[in-house]
Amino acid sequence: MLHFIFTSSIEKQVIYLNFVKVVLLKRTFMKKILSSLLLLFLISCTTSRYEVPGKPELNITIQRFDKAFYETGLWSDSTFLNLYANEIMEVGEPGSKMFKQFETIFRSDADIKKLYTDCQNTFSDVSDIEKELTWGFHRLQYFFPNIPIPKVYMHIAGYGESIVSAPGILSADIDKYLGKDYDVYKSLFSPYQTARMYPEKLTSDYMTGWVRSELTEYKLMESQRLLDYMIYEGKILFLIQILLPDESMENLSGLSTGQLAWCAANEKNMWGTILQLQHLYSKDVSIISKYIREAPHTAYFSQDSPGRAAIWTGYRIVSAYMEKNPKVTVQNLMLKTKAQDLLRGADYHP
């Protein structure tokens, strides 16, 4: 209870007005505090969409098939040995005549011996990769509890497919990650290809390979227009960034710092070109490939552009969509098949 003693009606009025001012000031101050708290709450809610609690229950240990097979010719895991022989190297069943011939060449050829030595020197210690994958798969299972965790391998295939996946299996051809200036690459690959063939790229390629195998294009695209591919690729990059938050965008995207800067500076122009050429809803495979496949540059953009630049645009659309729709979960985003709805919800205007 507040008590006031007034000596006159004028004094009483002045004191009353002052009291009202104090109350109003307090109310204004409290409103500001509540607004600030609400803003902080909303920010924390938005951030928490991508934060994963707890610690990994399963540690990833990379199976060094590359080392064991070269040095001994033995491997106790018949499932992976069969995959390596029949699918990766295509030399027939283990123990067959053709496979034995392959083994002999594999261990005696001077070029392969040098390649093996270089691989062992580059990947003598893979503990950092194992740690990053352990946390990456922990985050992946948080967002997608039904996605299994694969056994992870390394193999040597003579510059074959960089990443190979099969049910429960994920493996990297480590001779594709020896550094963009590796001598042998110069006679086998173009500079735009070798730019992505360095050791630090391996972790994100592992994660991307597994995510693609579990969240495939045909399951997540309602149609096969350029827009659908751009959104699909954009979602993959967006998810990998969440799974590997400490990785640079260069390692995640395969674009150099300069190429990322070009994309940022030309984001509006790229989008305008796609719309002007009326390619956004094209189903022409030749048109789509020029936007999203590896190349020295993106055909419909300037020669200063990186190859696959439209994937960056897809990533930006996905980012805008998630920013404007804070209630959408990561799982909701990835399982959304209608690219047109996502574009509309992003209200994308670079």
Task: Describe what you observe in this structure.
It is a single chain. With 350 residues, this protein is mostly helical. It folds into two domains: 65-214, no CATH class; 217-346, no CATH class. 59% of the residues lie in helices and 4% in strands. The chain is built from 18 helices and three strands. Strands 1-3-2 form a three-stranded mixed sheet, sandwiched between helices. α11 (226-243) crosses α18. The model is unreliable at 1-26 and 28-46 (pLDDT under 50).
Helix/strand layout:
Blueprint: H1 9-48, H2 65-72, H3 78-88, H4 97-108, H5 110-122, H6 127-143, E1 151-155, E2 163-166, E3 169-173, H7 185-188, H8 191-194, H9 202-214, H10 217-220, H11 226-243, H12 249-253, H13 257-265, H14 267-276, H15 285-292, H16 309-324, H17 330-335, H18 339-346
Parallel strand pairs: 1-3
Antiparallel strand pairs: 2-3
Helix pairs in contact: 6-9, 9-11, 11-16, 11-18, 16-18
What features would you highlight for this structure?
2 domains; globular; 3-stranded mixed β-sheet; 350 residues; 59% helix; mainly alpha
Give the SSE string: HHHHHHEEEHHHHHHHHHHHH
Intertermini distance? 59 Å
Backbone structural class: mainly alpha
Give unreliable regions as ranges: 1-26, 28-46
Helix content: 55-70%
Estimate what percentage of residues fall within beta strands. under 5%
In spatial order, strands of the major sheet run 1-3-2
User: How many structural domains can be distinguished in the coordinates?
Assistant: 2
Radius of gyration: 28 Å
Described by the principal axes of the CA atoms, the overall outline is: globular
Count of DSSP strands: 3
User: What's the average pLDDT?
Assistant: 88
The main pleated sheet reads as: 3 strands, mixed
> Number of helix segments?
18
